[in-house]
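Standup notes, structure subgroup. Blocker cleared on the flavin mononucleotide input:
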Amino acid sequence: MTERYWNKITAELLAGTRESDHPFRYATLATVGLEQVPRLRTVVIREFDPEEVQLIFYTDSRSKKMLHIKENNKVSLLFYHPEKLLQLRMEGIAMKERDGGTLARHWSGIKPESRKDYTVSQTPGTEIKGPDQLEYVERDDFFTVINVHPFRIEYLQLKRPNHIRVRFSKDADNWRSEFLVP
Ligand SMILES: Cc1cc2nc3c(=O)[nH]c(=O)nc-3n(C[C@H](O)[C@H](O)[C@H](O)COP(=O)(O)O)c2cc1C
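Run returned:
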């Protein structure tokens, strides 16, 4: 019964990584570090693997979200499709990619002008006198690939006559699902 909703989730997430104007290209990532204040920000979802159920985003190793992930690797991702009134909420474990070959593959796929996002010499969040005060390094040391392994995904679609809310939870290696009151 719930399989069609799982298929919709994977189809929309894949579309987000393939179509530049799909709303699931972007997600709101929430982290909670030691100070216990949830911090939200937009990230671009670069890859989604429907078999492994795993998502990837890129970031700077010096960013606050990385500090949070080191302190507490449980994160949430929120997706919203305004035309379909479809919301996906995900909870998962964030893990830094360590394999050199994989990192090199991702780095080589980034356009040269976009690589600048990961090569600013100053630490993200540091005060500067103006937007043109940035300096760049030639290296890719700050470029970081994060894998998110969801353990809970909640599908909510608002529609008449009935809104549809389905929770998928990972139990060891199996996903189970239930319909919920919306
Ligand atoms: C459209 C858009 C896309 C963004 N994509 C990313 C991204 O993929 N990775 C990232 O680290 N920050 C991305 N950002 C910036 C973050 O939202 C955030 O401001 C920044 O990473 C610092 O967050 P932090 O201090 O909580 O770590 C994006 C911002 C916007 C507006």
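Discussed briefly. The chain has one domain: 3-153.
Next: hand off to the docking folks.
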